[in-house]
Structure formats: C-alpha cells, structure tokens
Amino acid sequence: EDGDIKETDLIYHKYKKEIDKQILEIIRLFRNAVASGENIVQSIESVSQQIKDPLSFEFKEISNKVNLGVSLDEALKDSAAKIQNEQYSFFMDSIILSYSTGIKISDILSKIEDAVAQKLSLANKVDVLTSQVRFSGMIISVIPFFIVFLIYLFEPEIVSVLFSSMLGNMILFVCVIMIISGSFIMKKIADIKL
What is the DSSP letter of 92? Predict the structure, then answer.
C-alpha cells in the first residue's frame, strides 16, 4: 500500500512538472493565435492541436464543453480547478478577465508570459540549490552509520559497548535522535515554497 502511495506521488509530481514545462509554450501559442485574429474559443481549439498532453487534453476538453453549451467562464474555471497549478490558474483567470471585460488579451498575456518565465526560472534555480542541501543532508545522515560500521569491522568490542551497556544505549539513542533531527532540519531548509 505504501508503495502504491509513493508511486502515485511520483506520477503526480511528474504530471505537475510536465504542466510547468508547458505553461510558457501554451501562453505563447495562445497569444499568437489571438494576435492572428482568432477569437478566444478558436484560439483554444488551435492551441489544443499544437501542444502535447497533458495540456492538449485539457484544452480539447475546454473546447468540447464550450461546443456543448457550457459557458467559457465555467469551462475555464473547471479546468483551473482540475489542474491545480498556480501559473495555469493565473492564465485561465486572465482569459476570463479579458473575455468578460473586453480588455485586449494579447497585452495581458505578454505581461503574464514575462511573470511566469521569471517565476519558473527562479523555481529552477531554487531546485538546483536545494538539491545540493538535500544531498548534503543525505550524506550527513549516512556517514555516522558508515563510521560505526568501519569501527565494528576493526574493533567490534568498542561498538558492542553501545548495545550491551546502559550508558552505551543512551549514547546510541541520543545519536540516532540527533541524526534524525538533523535530517529533518535539512529537509525543511530545502523545502522552499515559491
């Protein structure tokens, strides 16, 4: 059961990464479609044919809903709620805003494209920097056990004291707690939300 949960988390993480990669492309394609004279619904259909899944499927679904009589506003909100990505929701909201107020969408999309590009660039930099912290945390967690194992190979009676005496048990317990705490702290340091 734990394995299924981890596999589901991994698939979901991969899915979110794919959406993050497609956000800028989809904004550019949509902006170009609108700039070429297509209306919002036509632009959605056009973009759905030019991109890959998962967002190709989402845009086709929006287009199908609108063709079946669902309001564009509702179809876009449903899609944003389903995808649950901040940049995607921001993009959907800008289309809704433009559609309801008549503001020129290409101007809005240019600004959104710049903002999203900056945020994704920052997220990539944070990923690189935090991966170093995560790696350091992993190494720091493993080294004490490795050292104890080496000592055990050459001087087993020294290590056996940790398991056979009360003082040794206390020292071992404190060391394990400190290692777990250190790993947890390193993980929290690396867990930066943008």
Answer: H
